[in-house]
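Input/output pair, single chain:
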Amino acid sequence: MSKKKLAILVATGMLAAPLVAQAQDVEVYGDVRLSIDMSKNEQDPVIGGRDDSALSVNSNTSKLGFKGSEKLSDNLSVIWQYETEVELDNGDMTVNGRDTFGGLKGSWGLLKAGKLSNPMKQSTNKIDIFVNTRADHNMIVGNVNGVNTFDNRFDNTIWYSTPKFGGVKLDLSYTTDSKEDALPGKLISPEKSVTSFSLNYDKGPLYVAVVTEARNDAKLKDDGQYEDVAATKLVGRWDFGQGTTVGFIYEDAENSAGAEVTTMTLASASGQARSAFYLNAAHKIGNTTLKAAYSQADDLDNAVGTGATHYALGAFKSYSKNTELYVLYTATDNDANAKYGLKDMAGIEGNTISAFSFGLNKRFSSK
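Output:
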């Protein structure tokens, strides 16, 4: 679709949205997440051919969405959602569709299908205090030496959640095939499915989760076939009250045979892995929340100098329930053979990459 046609379609949808929302139980919502960033890296421009600093405007996964529900019976409702990313820095609507699905909900739980974040990704939503900023935690969490492997959303995904029992809930997702849809074009081999599972406890001041994910589409072997990779994650958050919270993540990546591996960038180096942890704290003083985070990725097995550390400091001031301004500083310090980056910024092997951001977060909803 051309940009002109897409712009007309979006404009028509925006104009019609208030009428649709009145006619049905439909919510129009979104996030404006704009920032002005000064970023730096240590690479010598003469040697690397790249600038060592830049001033930029960034959209930070701003989004626009529509969602609704309809009660079909006393114990059955249909739910749906359409959500897409919006590039505020250049005015484009992207093709980066976000969680978009249809489903059924009742006292028996929730069943939905579509393009979905899996439990591995969603389990840390409560933990990432710098979400969708340059300091987003997924520069280490779910990331193996600069490759995002375990922090994704997938097409063709089926999700089931149990009801909560005393704060305990089970989430399970299965991606039938992350690349291909159906017969007759579907290949016999390799199957490229993804399975993700989380057991959560969320009650009072405590949130904890144990999460696993298995993929057989992420690591290509020398014979052109895919090899299973997996990750396990322990997540925790404690609310001390009076505006103070702390969060923790521990994550390990390994293959299904027990030998730990990485992803496609090290396809021939079977038996490698990295473990990582992430720690953060937030404290609210009046309308301002001070935030700090620190994370570390260990070396890959048998690969010295492939670790990295990431840290962030920020102050977020709320002007209303849905509007805040912030300033933050964040940096990723790579060991000699590591190339972790920042959100939307690829890392440079062996170098430190950093950013200072001034940003605006604005949420809106028709309800």
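The first strand starts at residue 26 and ends at 41. Residues 1-12, 255-271 have pLDDT under 50 and may be disordered.
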